[in-house]
Amino acid sequence: MKKYIFALSACPQGSFFGEKLHEGKWKNGKPYGIHKVYSNENVIYEGEIHVNVSNKIVYHGKGNLYKNKGVLQYKGEFLDHERNGEGTEFFNNGSLY
């Protein structure tokens, strides 16, 4: 399977990602597996991607959510684009939750 980089304007209608760049594998016109999502050349998410029942591309499974030029904000599980299950929140002052 080939690896592609897409501008998400070419992705299914209703994607949560808008015009962000999306790197990962696609099969039958849908993303699957581990992906990286970029905004302004910075990674904002790296992890599992899923197409839900509403045909929207969402964070789903294990992943890392980044903010402010690649600073890790959350590492853990996602369900239908929401933090769900086990995970760790990283704060600017160095504390964890």
Annotate the secondary structure layout:
Elements (H helix, E strand, L loop, with lengths): L2 E5 L13 E7 L2 E10 L2 E10 L5 E11 L3 E9 L2 E8 L8
Antiparallel strand pairs: 1-2, 2-3, 3-4, 4-5, 5-6, 6-7
Short description:
With 97 residues, the chain is mainly beta. It has strands spanning 3-7, 21-27, 30-39, 42-51, 57-67, 71-79, 82-89.
- Order of strands, main sheet, comes to 1-2-3-4-5-6-7
- CA distance, first residue to last residue: 38 Å
Average predicted confidence as pLDDT: 80
CA-atom Rg in angstroms: 13 Å
Total strands: the figure is 7
Low-confidence stretches: 1-15
Question: How large is the share of residues in beta strands?
Answer: over 45%
What key attributes describe this structure?
seven-stranded antiparallel sheet; mainly beta; globular
Written account of the structure:
This protein is mostly beta strands. 0% of the residues lie in helices and 62% in strands. The chain has no helices and seven strands. The chain has strands at 3-7, 21-27, 30-39, 42-51, 57-67, 71-79, 82-89. A seven-stranded antiparallel beta sheet has the order 1-2-3-4-5-6-7, with no helix packed on it. The chain is globular. The relative contact order is 0.15. Residues 1-15 have low confidence and may be disordered.
